[in-house]
Amino acid sequence: LHRVDRRQRQMCIRDRHGPEHPAVGMALANRASLLNELNRSDEARASYVRVRQIFVARLGEEHANIAALDMNLGNLELGEGNLAAARERLTDVPDRLQAKLPAEHPWVAQSLTSRGRMWVETGDLDAGQADIEQAIRIFEKTSPESADLAIAQCRRAWTLGKQGNAVQARRAFEQAFKQFDLSLKQDAQGHPEVTNCRALQAEVASPP
Description:
Blueprint (H helix, E strand, L loop, with lengths): L1 H16 L4 H16 L3 H19 L4 H16 L3 H8 L2 H8 L5 H16 L3 H18 L4 H16 L3 H19 L7 H13 L4
Helix pairs in contact: 1-2, 2-3, 3-4, 4-5, 4-6, 4-7, 5-7, 6-7, 7-8, 7-9, 8-9, 9-10, 9-11, 10-11
């Protein structure tokens, strides 16, 4: 019923404003986020691409929303292991966002976390660590109780593990899980981001 209602709202928005209106794009973006959460990445990608077309036509290529959509598309590519496509999407996103938004805007920090992950996965651990540390500094200042901070802290721990710093990585993972507990509270148990962080911990765990 919830999905039917969501689709009906999208159709009403489209009928009221026309298929190219930014409000239609926002509705499609919300749908894409839901599809991504359901691991329906192909459908999510198609929705994000359509949203991007709408926003470029109405807002212009340089708008911050376009960079944010490229971040979402880059994250999809990372999730599927398409590193070349992820690099193409994510490399300049933080700079594009910083050109349009305050330097400590949440989107800037989120994009640094995403780009940092991309650098680590493509083998540039130092560049990845630098981006992730910058994201953490922003989140610590602007949203110290957020799950976004926990996600960045988890990526910091993962990067330390990749660098062979086992003791520091273990401590950093502990910090990330405490932050998840703080931000998500009773929802932390079984939350997809917590599950993902535990998988990252297992990936870089030192042998006994």
